[in-house]
Every structure is written in structure tokens, then in C-alpha cells.
Design goal:
single chain; about 290 residues; elongated
Length: about 290
């Protein structure tokens, strides 16, 4: 995993890679830190389906899983090299710290996600269902030696924006097609994706059509266990009416990984009692950026 702290030596470049997804370069020149990256995947290629595992015997072993998740870290040093860095479209950061220590922290992207399961379903009145979505994360870059001063944030994959809601009352979100499966599959874990358990409860008197939903990822934390990333569980309680739902976030590791360690805090720490539009969607074209 690339997450963690890196003490940058003078005239050193770190090259960090998430296999088939992102190459990240961090260099130090005196008190300046230079950052660049190249995305290798879009949200469409990243969230494509993988071969189905029919039985436990067909599941990948630990070595295969590590290769699937793969990350790597290399470094270059020396004055001759650092003063003639490859042209990668660097951003430069002149810092206060004489010896910057860079922290890379996983965080959910800055917008909610419109999640569209492969197979829509209808939820009976009074019933609840649990699904799992996989959200591509962002990399928060901080200077730990200066009180966790935030430098920048990098989406691991190219995102696509769309519109959620009505013309009068809506918002821009990221769009994501996911399996939203009812079981956790080991081969679906990747170093840059977070498994998010979502419980949907229908408190209305009518069937709830779960075709698309708006996942408010700003309320979710990121936990890690055995190189796998999880969010805390989110419960969406649909009350009917104007399609507003109450959101409840547990704030702790999910039941599937109770010993997971917190490595990324939520953007918005509010955990419950927030009514949000979740299921109603007005179809509009997607926008690339």
C-alpha cells in the first residue's frame, strides 16, 4: 500500500505506483516539494467487471491477490538527477518545514457518487437489504512536519460528473457503475478502492425501486485491514414522501472487518439525522472533465 509517511531526503525523488491505475512522483529540492502524477485508468476501465469466483477453491491465493492489488515504491537520489528532473508537469510547493515529511492519506472524493447497480431491485415495505459498493479513493497529500498541512488531493482515477435530483433541487455528483453485490468477493479488492457496506431500509408503505442511489461519501471514514480498505457502514432509511432519506453512519469499522484500523477521517463527521435526497434521479447526460 502507498498510504503512510515518507521522510524526503534532500535531492530525492519517490516514485509510487498503484498498478494499472496511477503513477505518483514526489521530489524534494531544498525546502520545495515537487508533485506530479499520471493516471493510467478512467472510472470506466477501473470499475469494469472481473471474472466471477464460483467457489472458494477458485478464489485467488494471497500471492495472486497481492499482484492484483499491487503497489510499488522506488526512489532516485543525487544532485545531478534532482536538478534535471523529467518533465512531468510538476506542481511546486515551497514549504515552511526544513525537513518535510509527506503523508499520503486515503480519502473519499469531494462529491457524492451516483451508484447504479448492475441489477436493480425492489425493496418491500418494512424490509431492508445490505449491499456493497466499491468507491475509488483520492490521495490526500500532507506535510506531517508542519501540523498536517494539506498540499493537494489527487483522484486515483479520472472521474465523470453527472446530475442528481431535479432542475430546481439537485447537485453535481460523480457517476459510478458498480456491481453493488450482496456478498464480498476477495478478487474485487484493489489498493485504491474502498469497500462500502450500505444498508437500505424501506420505512414507507410502498415498494422502493433501488435503481440508482446517491451515496454521500463525505460522511464515510476509511479503515484498513490486511491491505484491504473498508468504510464504516452507512444506513439509508427511506421514509417515502419526497424521496428524502435519513442517513446513519456507524463511525466504526464494519462488521466484516471489526479489527480494521482507521487511516482516513471523513470530510463531514456528521453521522446521523441528516435527511438527504437519495433515490430520485433525473436523467441527464454525463460530463467528462
Amino acid at each position: 500500500m502507498i498510504w503512510g509517511d515518507y521522510k524526503l531526503k534532500k535531492n530525492q525523488e519517490l516514485n509510487l505506483s498503484i498498478k494499472d491505475v496511477l503513477d505518483l512522483h514526489i521530489a524534494r529540492k531544498e525546502q520545495e516539494v515537487w508533485i506530479s502524477f499520471e493516471r493510467l485508468a478512467s472510472i470506466f476501465s477501473d470499475t469494469g467487471s472481473v471474472p466471477t469466483v464460483e467457489t472458494e477453491q477458485d478464489a485467488p491465493d494471497a500471492l495472486q491477490l497481492k499482484e492484483l492489488q499491487g503497489t510499488s515504491i522506488t526512489e532516485q537520489t543525487g544532485e545531478d538527477y534532482i536538478y534535471d528532473l523529467p518533465d512531468r508537469g510538476w506542481s511546486r510547493w515551497a514549504l515552511r518545514s526544513a525537513k518535510p515529511e509527506i503523508s499520503l492519506i486515503p480519502t473519499f472524493p469531494d462529491l457524492s457518487f451516483i451508484v447504479r447497480p448492475d441489477y436493480p431491485f425492489r425493496l418491500a415495505p418494512g424490509a431492508q437489504a445490505k449491499i456493497y459498493t466499491r468507491i475509488p479513493l483520492s490521495i490526500g497529500v500532507f506535510d506531517k512536519s508542519d501540523g498536517m498541512l494539506k498540499l493537494c488531493e489527487i483522484n486515483t482515477v479520472e472521474m465523470v460528473k453527472s446530475w442528481f435530483g431535479t432542475f430546481e433541487d439537485g447537485e453535481v455528483c460523480y457517476w459510478l457503475k458498480t456491481t453493488a453485490s450482496q456478498v464480498v468477493r476477495q478478487e474485487m479488492f484493489r489498493a485504491h478502492r474502498c469497500y462500502c457496506p450500505v444498508v437500505i431500509k424501506n420505512n414507507s408503505s410502498e415498494f422502493l425501486n433501488v435503481e440508482k442511489l446517491c451515496l454521500r461519501v463525505d460522511r464515510l471514514s476509511v479503515f484498513e485491514l490486511e491491505n484491504k480498505l473498508w468504510s464504516d457502514e452507512m444506513k439509508i432509511v427511506h421514509e417515502g414522501g419526497d424521496n428524502f432519506s435519513d442517513l446513519i453512519v456507524s463511525g466504526k469499522p464494519p462488521n466484516e472487518a471489526p479489527k480494521a484500523k482507521l487511516i482516513g477521517k471523513p470530510r463531514n463527521p456528521v453521522r446521523k439525522g441528516i435527511a438527504e435526497r437519495t433515490f430520485k434521479l433525473l436523467q441527464m447526460p454525463s460530463l467528462k472533465f
